[in-house]
Amino acid sequence: MSNSAAESATGDQVIQLVTFRLQDETYGINVMQVQEVLRVTEIAPVPGAPPYVLGIINLRGNVVTVIDTRSRFGLPGTERDDSSRIVIIESDHQVVGILVDSVAEVVELRQSEIDQAPSVGNDESSRYIQGVASRDKDLLIVVDLNKLLTDEEWSEMATF
Amino acid sequence: MRTELSARLAQPDAALQNLLDALLVDVATDAPAGGARAPAAAAAPTRPTAQDPVLNTEPAPPLTEPGVAQAPLPAWAVNGFRALLFRIGEFRFALPLVLMRGVAPGEERLGKIPGLPAWHLGAMHSRGALVNVADLGQLVGIDAHCTALRYLLLIGDGRVALGCDALEDAVVVDSAQVRWQRHQRAGRAWLAGLLVQQMCLLLDADALAQAMRHD
User: Distance between the two ends of chain A, CA-based, in angstroms?
Assistant: First the structure.
């Protein structure tokens, strides 16, 4: 049975996620928002850029801003290595790159498999966590890319 | 067990004593002379009587401090209760078993979700549900932090848990042997009282779960 057939039969939407690793955790983002995955080349720093901006890259003649995902998620920085990747994503606002430790795979999840993320403490700080699913005994943290930055921050990014 | 307990009580740990003193200072000042509440007072009926101060038409006496409200004895404690004793760091705590949903091993790795408060130790799936695990010390602002995280004490609806380092014992507690935290101050709803015999804090599991709620 195809995904759409399964979906219509159960009313349980199936989504595909590209998974990547940061520190010790696995994150997932909607495959429909991923344009491509790049090996890390030169990222040119931008003077005066916000702390969550690593710099810019030249992607076939287009300038793409790269977000420091570890910093955004409050994780310590690390050296880039052969596994590091820049995932080019398209949010509601613009095309940006996010630097991740590695890209793992594409997985399918039913919407019902995603638990609502704990919204404790400062909701602002984890607003981009859409939910959490169980995957191979580990957690898969589903990220809402559109909320990775605030509207103000997206606007600021557009100036690069 | 009793011998060990007596030994510990004979030489109370200074850090524990400091913690208890700090947390229960208001209870101590309000408690009747002689220490623990009398059994009759502790086991007050839930249904008010004609003599009950609640029904007194006289103006209520002023509270000792603004914003401090008198809370009734929890219903689950009226006729005594069973409590689980456990350790977090160097401190012993107790949870009423009636308010617990279970105990899970803390062996599985917890997933750390970014952006959550420091008390959120992580999350894991247990019995088909996502369980959020809290560090009690960080959650309520006391100096008691998990070092081993061997067990998860499931409370509330079973989707939240306290991390603990060791389980000690399950004991039957006479409500008269509890110095109840009857004056529920803002920010200290998690403290139900002090188990006098065991010299440890009795936690209000529901209040803790409420503090951790994610909906």
Answer: 46
CB-nearest partner of B112 from A25, A119, A128: A25
- Mean pLDDT, rounded, for B169-188: 82
Q: Does B111 contact A75 at a Cβ distance shorter than 8 Å?
A: no
* CA pair distance A156, A17, nearest whole angstrom: 27
Mind telling me how many Å the CA of B52 is from chain A's nearest CA? 40
Least reliable range by pLDDT among A43-52, B42-51, B142-151: B42-51
**Residue A16, min C-alpha distance to chain B (Å):** 21
CATH topology of domain B2-31+79-212: OB fold (Dihydrolipoamide Acetyltransferase, E2P) (2.40.50)
* Domain A3-157 classification at class level: mainly beta
Query: Is any Cβ of chain B less than 8 angstroms from the Cβ of A129?
Result: yes
Residue A124 has what pLDDT? 62
The encoded tokens of residue B144 equal 């008691």
pLDDT band at A116 (very low <50, low <70, confident <90, very high): confident
Rounded to whole angstroms, what are the CA distances from B90 to A132, B14, B83?
33, 11, 19
For chain A, the average pLDDT equals 86
- Are A103 and A37 in contact, with CB atoms under 8 Å apart? yes
Q: Which residues of B touch A116 (CB under 8 A)?
A: 214-215
> Taking the domains of chain A in order of start, what are their residue ranges?
3-157
Q: A126, B113: Cβ pair inside 8 Å?
A: yes
